[in-house]
Structures are given as C-alpha cells and as structure tokens.
Automatic annotation (TrEMBL):
It is found in: Cell membrane. This is DedA protein. GO terms for cellular component: plasma membrane. The chain crosses the membrane at residues 29-48, 118-138, 144-165. Pfam families: VTT_dom. The lineage of its organism: Bacteria, Bacillati, Bacillota, Bacilli, Lactobacillales. Residues 24-133 form the VTT domain. It comes from Catellicoccus marimammalium M35/04/3. Keywords: Cell membrane, Membrane, Transmembrane, Transmembrane helix. Belongs to the DedA family. It is a multi-pass membrane protein. Its main location: membrane.
Amino acid sequence: MSVLSTIVFSLSALLRIHAEHVHFWHVLLAIFIALVMSVSGDAIDFCIGKYTNKLLNHWKFFQKHFSEQELARGERFVQRYGKMAIFFSRYIPGIRTITSYVIGASNYSFPIYVSLNILANLIMLTLYALFGYFLGGIPFVKEHFVVIVMLLVLLPLIPSLYFTWKKNKKDSSEKTEK
C-alpha cells in the first residue's frame, strides 16, 4: 500500500470513527483529491523518463543507479507487459515510480498510459477508501487505529527492504570477487 493509499484509508476510517453522521461525499472528495495527486505524480515520472532518457549517458549519478542493462530489461518488460505493468504496478510499493519512469523512457503512448493509470488508481483508491470506511465502524479498529495504520505503512516496506538488501549483498559479493 502506498503512502497515499494509507492516507485515504486512514481518512475514511477516521471519518467513520469520529463522526456520527458522516456524509459519504467526504470519502468521495478524499478519493478525488488523492486521485489527482497520484495521477499527477505518475505523469511527472512518465515525463521525466521520456525527456531525460537521452541525458542518462552524460550524468554519472544516473549511470551509477540506472545501468543500460537495467533500462534495457525495463524496456523489454514494458514491451512484453505494457498495459498490465501500468495497471498492476500501482499496487506494488517502490515499483510504481520506476514503472512510470521506464514506460516514459520507452516512448510508450502517453494517452494510453494516462488512461490506464487513472483507471488503476481509481480502483485502488476506491478500494482502500471503502475498506477504511467500513472497517472504521468496527470496535477493534477504533481501539487500535494507530497500530493498524502504522502496520499499513510499514508492512509494504518489507519487500522493498528485502530486495534492496539482496541487491546490496550481490553488489558487495561482486566487488570482493574482483
């Protein structure tokens, strides 16, 4: 779950927990604002990928973090799974930004990208908002709200931390072999 999804979940649950007469349009407004923020951020990542791809060869910082092999692998992934990659990357923390960047760098169609991105974000944010809204009425959730939100923020970080650790371990073993 991304930070934005956690915010929408939390806001929806808080509306249900602390307000006796919650208007559902408050939840819809939260979804709309989060959708605009999410789609805008992804579009910026797409544009950065599209317009800076050629500059990567000149900046050592980017060469260190984005090798040509990794970008080529990303482009093959986009060619193979383009629409599915756009749609399902919304649900994987850390992959979301990289996917938008790689899709932009691979000269993917912007209108198709934006359409799928809006649809994926709308589904994701609506699910989290409804999930938070209906769970907010459960007494256990009311009593342990802070712990639940902290778990929602921290749990998705575990796969990202694991893959970062695994990559660093691989890089350090390659350096010791040389």
